[in-house]
Amino acid sequence: MNRNNIWIHIGIAVILVTLAAVIGQIDRWRSALKFDTVPAVRSTPMPKSVARTKEDSEPEVLVRFKPGVSLAEIKKITAMNNDVVEDEIESVKGLAAIDDLDNADPEAVAEQYREMSNVSYAEPNYEIKLDDPAETYSIQDGVHRVPSDASPDDPQFAQQWALNNLGQDGGKKGADINALEAWQETQGSDQVVVAVLDSGVDYTHTDLRSNMWLRPDNLPQYTDDELGTFNDENGFNGTDNAADPMDDNGHGTHCAGIIGAEGNNGEGIAGVNWNVRIMPLKFMGRGGFGTTKDAIEAINYAIDRKQHGVNVRVINASWGSTSRSKALEDAIRAAGEQGILFVAAAGNDGSNNDKRPHYPSNYDLPNVISVAALDRNDQLTSFSNWGPNTVHIAAPGKDILSTWLNDDYREASGTSMAAPHVAGVAALILAKEPNLSVEKLRDRLLKSVDPIDSLKGKIESGGRLDAAKALGN
Amino acid sequence: MSFTRESAVARAKSDLAARLKVSEGDINEVSTSEKDFPDMSLGAPEKGEMSAQMISSGWQIRLGANGKNYEYRADKYQLRLHDFKGSNYVVES
């Protein structure tokens, strides 16, 4: 080989190496770009995870068998599939870590188990990666990851399917409000006040107290011409004018936790807003019911505080009846004129609100949003009211984990649980765009839904609340 | 007031006896069962009453008197009479 040929070969080698590097970079860019351009792909699970490789000695799938299936039966089933039970997870009845001796693809193995009638769920065994902010996309599991600061460390977050549905407990992966992606944009603001018009709020709850509204020192106490002056340090109580809005039922505390349980505090759950200010407006008593009058008084209180400079922008109303009240309608309209969105539960009678109205959700006002309830499979729950002209949006409302009395947590179901998801996302939007008018805020929520075929003709927007889209992602 | 299943049934009987102006001995318990109700008024709101829209468990108490059946609904904190002559009533809360 002469010298000229050597230089030609070296030149070709340099070009090839450079080309390979460029292609590699393009591939990484493509991976990164997929994050923004492939709407069907879900955000990260929490904690971040990747599928194990076949080389690992760890079991490939985690399978939870239905109650009544014994360990002996599980071993028999796995043996028939040339699998072996590597470990029974004692703390979760029926859950087993299973190793596939054929080294088949973990997802395929999981799918095989999912098809069995005696299996509740099956999923690939994911490796827990606590700190890998650089990795944003894995072809193996098709899951996008968000930076670590957008994934809360709240220990019960994995049970909050409404915020991040990984298909847990038989749910549909991605049937959630897309919270992780939204939190990349904002995690809320302490400048936004959401009033919870309900049974009060346990403002001492460990997961809530940092996000509770407190009357500023420079704001005068609330004075009602007839009722007198209130010590409204923690909010308002219309039930007996005792001023203390402490919850004695639990329902209001549950709604408050959905809206704004403190996020990433290593405690309990995460709210839709990690950071927000929750103003308790108590009008229902221990039994969970109250009068129209007390509701109106509480709305009046919120309006008064707004007029005194408190940034109340959203009222959550997880209650209702079939009785129409013009006075209540007027109070809600007055709140709208002060820039306050009124988010209302559509009701739990499984009926059509177009034909059998439910109030306050049915008041035809520019600041009212009526919310139906979905289950973890993106299906309208059997109890949820609906109505193509009167129910506007759907949100998760079944088996929702949130805060409860005495520092506790509880799962609950109802359109009561769906409404605070919408109220919470409204607050997220306002954290990013504080000057948005109530009409535009409502419009944004309804026009950014994830369309769901089964909701067409049943819900005005035809879709599920999507926090990320509502924030413009 | 805090109800147990038994005390709710007893209170329902005394309420119905008073409404029908009969003795409690003339009222029989047809059935009592646990049930999920659509809201915290146990699906039996009084006119104008607003209730939390959360699925709530309680007891459905069916009583019989004079050849007719009557339905009460109760939980730990309340007892309601459902659809009595077209209306719902909070008996105690």
Q: Could you please describe the fold and organization of this structure?
A:
The complex is a heterodimer of chains A (473) and B (93). By secondary structure, chain A is α/β, with parallel strands linked by helices. Helix content of chain A is 27%, strand content 21%. Chain A contains 10 helices and 23 strands. In chain A, the strands form 7 sheets. A 7-stranded parallel β-sheet of chain A has the order 12-13-9-15-17-18-19, sandwiched between helices. A 4-stranded antiparallel β-sheet of chain A has the order 3-4-2-5, with helices on one face. A two-stranded antiparallel sheet of chain A has the order 1-6. The longest helix of chain A has 35 residues, at 3-37. The termini of chain A are far apart. The relative contact order of chain A is 0.11. Mean pLDDT of chain A is 83; it is low at 20-59 and 126-148. Chain B has 93 residues and is α+β, with helices and mostly antiparallel strands. Helix content of chain B is 17%, strand content 48%. Chain B has one helix at residues 5-20, and strands spanning 28-37, 49-52, 56-65, 68-75, 78-84, 87-92. A 5-stranded antiparallel β-sheet of chain B has the order 1-3-4-5-6, with helices on one face. In chain B, a hairpin with a 2-residue loop joins strand 5 (78-84) and strand 6 (87-92). The interface between A and B is medium-sized, with 37 and 20 residues.
